[in-house]
Amino acid sequence: MSQKFQELIQSERPVLIDFFATWCQPCRVQSSVLNSVKEKLGEKARIVKIDIDQFPSIANQYNVRGVPTLAVFKNGEMLWKESGVHDVNSLVGVLEQYAN
Q1: Class of residue 9 by CB neighbours under 10 A (exposed 0-12, middle 13-18, buried 19+)
Q2: pLDDT band per the 50, 70, 90 thresholds, residue 85
Q3: Cα–Cα distance between 37 and 72 in angstroms, integer?
Q4: What is the per-residue pLDDT across 31-65, written as a single tens digit (0 to 9) for each?
Q5: Quick one: 73 exposed, middle or buried, by C-beta within 10 A (0-12, 13-18, 19+)?
Q6: DSSP class of residue 51?
Q7: 85-90-91-94 Cα dihedral, nearest 10 degrees
Q8: Which residues does 91 contact at the CB level (< 8 Å), separation at least 6?
Q9: Is the dihedral of CA 48, 49, 50, 52 positive or negative?
Q10: CA-closest candidate to residue 1, choices 41, 53, 42
Q11: Which residues are marked as active site?
Q12: What is the pLDDT of residue 94?
């Protein structure tokens, strides 16, 4: 998965990684927000969910200490990272900033 993850974040368009856990209630809220973000952005950005319990090495590599944590990557570089639940408009704003 780590190799696949590296390929994934090499994308020309921004990739929003949602680090989550199945037992995390706020993660469920964030997940529904991300569905709306995807609808608004379409092909401008990609959204990928990473379960920190299934892939702890990736979570550790990017210093994910709590869930949900969101991170935006483009061309293999982390451009933005924040923990906690974010609303649709702020996430659309972040992704559009890196989509151009």
Answers
A1: buried
A2: very high
A3: 13
A4: 999 999 999 999 999 999 999 999 999 999 999 99
A5: buried
A6: E
A7: -130
A8: 16, 33, 34, 37, 70
A9: positive
A10: 53
A11: 24, 27
A12: 97
Q: List phi, psi (to 5°) of 34.
A: -65, -30
Rounded Cα distance between 11 and 28, Å, is: 26
Is the bond leading into 14 cis (omega within 30 degrees of zero)?
A: no
Which amino acid, one-letter code, is at 90? S
C-alpha of 45 from chain center: 10
Show the domain range for 38: 2-99
Q: How many domains does the chain have?
A: 1
Question: What is the rounded average pLDDT for all residues in the chain?
Answer: 96
Per-residue DSSP letter, 95: H
Q: What is the CATH number of the domain that holds 32?
A: 3.40.30.10
